[in-house]
Amino acid sequence: MVLAIDVGNTRIKGAVFENDNTLGFFVFPKEKIQKEIENILKKYPSVKHLIVASVGKADKDLFLNFKNVLDLWFISHEDFFPFTNNYATPKTLGIDRMVLAAGATLKFPRQNRLIIDAGTCVTYDFVDQNDVYHGGAISPGLRLRYESLHNFTEKLPLLTVDNPKHFIGDSTAEAIHSGIVNGLVYEINGFVDEYLSKFPNFIIILTGGDANFLAMRLKNTIFANSNFLLESLNQIFQYKIGK
Ligand SMILES: Nc1ncnc2c1ncn2[C@@H]1O[C@H](COP(=O)(O)OP(=O)(O)O)[C@@H](O)[C@H]1O
Ligand SMILES: CC(C)(COP(=O)(O)O)[C@@H](O)C(=O)NCCC(=O)O
Ligand SMILES: [K+]
Q1: Residue 31 lies in a domain
Q2: Residue where a domain stops, chosen among 51, 74, 97
Q3: Among 27, 30, 64, 224, which residue's Cβ finds the most Cβ atoms within 10 Å?
Q4: Whose CA is nearest to atom 14 of ligand 1?
Q5: Tens digit of each residue's pLDDT (9 = 90 or more) over 188-207
Q6: d(CA 221, CA 176)
Q7: Stated pTM of the model
Q8: Per DSSP, what are the bridge partners of residue 192?
Q9: Residue 117 assigned ligand-binding role
Q10: Residue 90 is part of which domain span?
């Protein structure tokens, strides 16, 4: 059994896998990591492996306490990834993006794949059918957009994510919801259209904390799976032990 952990910039997500089956799924803040992992191990005593993807750099220390009880694999740029990396700065490519690209490559062989991760940031990653990773884009995530409008202006309130009632926002709150939610939907649709003009076929995997909220608003058929990063970690783990 393996415990996969994804340390994002907003939250920590974890899942316990036995082969291809997800046995449990967890979300918790960074401060609680020690206690939460202890609880998970109590609940699933057969967990022997811990595989971690983190976008931070000091986070490894958080997991060293478990080194004696678990086989710890902290994914790094030095690990083997099942794609050719054409990013011009591979050392600065986010580990989360590399894990998503690896998961898409392993799970959807021999096809073009676009992975959109709507988390703290929205990231776009493209891996072609020959398993070449091209790169993509990074933009502010949904929550970050609400916080930025509030933090960098005098008058804009901090709102929680909500459905815009109208396309034409008729109040401050409605104008913000329309600007942010419709704006992000236009952004994603626009990116997808631009990729479609260059690559006629590809599958789209939408993941991250806002995947479900966004999925129903997008015009293209997408595969929404908010746990894709954790599942990708499990794929990478199985790929490694299968070798
Ligand atoms: N309970 C929650 N706490 C924080 N963000 C949440 C929560 N539920 C949904 N979200 C949304 O999830 C996004 C963060 O997604 P997540 O994939 O966890 O980010 P990261 O991987 O960067 O930590 C935020 O933009 C926010 O809108
Ligand atoms: C772009 C990110 C901040 C996204 O982080 P997340 O939204 O998943 O928390 C992360 O992938 C990162 O730190 N990337 C480094 C820069 C790059 O990928 O080129
Ligand atoms: K992201």
Answers
A1: yes
A2: 74
A3: 224
A4: 119
A5: 999 999 999 999 999 999 99
A6: 27
A7: 0.96
A8: none
A9: yes
A10: 84-233
